[in-house]
Amino acid sequence: MKDFSYPTLEPFNFMGLEKQEYEKAKVVIFPVPYNSTTYWKSGTKEGPRAIIEASRHIELYDLETKKDPSKEGIFTLEPLEPSKNSPQETLARIKSVMDKLLADGKFPIMLGGEHSITLGAIQAFKEKFIDFSVLQIDAHSDLRDEFEGTKYHHASVMKRVKDLGISTTQVGIRSVSEGEELENVFFTPDLPVDKIVSTLKKNVYLTFDLDAFDPSIMPSVGTPEPGGLGWYEVLNLIREVSKKRKIIGADVVELDPIPGLVAPDFLAAKLVYKIISYIV
């Protein structure tokens, strides 16, 4: 793995931050431009770059929390190079990077890429934290045992997480497959925040599939589902979780940029910065 003590190229720094030092940064942005060939659209590999590019045009001061979260230090890693051999090898590469970030006491935010990358991060967190749960905000339950001949498909990622024995809570779900085992699932438009929080353990890993949002504000996803969540109800949920539990890491995945339509890219970038503002 590369030494993280040097700054990344300025154009690829989240929020356009210059001269960020890995050793002093509390938050580390980890881009993973990965997608399989299973989508009818296949641009999720462009998601991390679109998020970072949009973030460079967002104000550093957060009006809600009345602070500049970037002052805590936000370092951006170079994008991970996915394996061309197998999904498992890509997951192993993700875990290796996450292992280092956690050992160094960083708060990692992984940018995808398709949702299957979450498993590599969770594998690292499972070794670091004895007791934690996963909060999945998503349109799809992703609980198929396998799909299209692989157990490492984005439609199977939460089944693999459950196979690790990790408690999960799923929010915003409005598309499931017959026979999936559903537990701690909150279907859109039902968003009882206190009840959701009560299902979570003290430490929480947040995985956010952008298709959780209604496609009227987030059309740039591979598999949009009507009837999704709104911006402010999502922020309210994440804010309350951050107040009553400890968010230990996060990912934002499944942005599939549409050329010429930048609003969804800005929404995704702002979401990442809001997560940072709630946890620093």
Number of helices: 7
Number of self-contained structural domains: 1
The largest β sheet comes out as: 8 strands, parallel
CATH architecture: 3-Layer(aba) Sandwich
> Which homologous superfamily in CATH is the superfamily?
Ureohydrolase domain
| Secondary structural class | alpha/beta
Q: Fraction of residues in helices?
A: 25-40%
How much of the residues is beta strand, in percent?
Answer: 15-25%
| CATH fold topology | Arginase, Chain A
Low-confidence blocks of residues: 1-10
Spatial extent as radius of gyration:
17 Å
Tell me about this structure.
It is a single chain. The chain is an alpha/beta fold. The chain has a single domain, classed as Arginase, Chain A. The protein is 29% helix and 16% strand. The chain has seven helices and eight strands. The chain has an eight-stranded parallel beta sheet, with helices on both faces. Strand 1, helix 1 and strand 2 form a beta-alpha-beta unit. Helix 1 packs across helix 7, helix 3 runs parallel beside helix 4 and helix 6 packs parallel to helix 7. The chain is globular. It starts with 26 loop residues before the first strand and ends with a helix. The N terminus is likely disordered.
How would the blueprint of this fold be written?
Blueprint: E1 27-32, H1 47-55, E2 74-76, H2 87-103, E3 107-112, H3 118-128, E4 133-137, H4 157-163, E5 167-173, E6 185-187, H5 193-198, E7 203-209, H6 231-244, E8 246-253, H7 263-279
Parallel strand pairs: 1-2, 1-3, 3-8, 4-5, 4-7, 5-6, 7-8
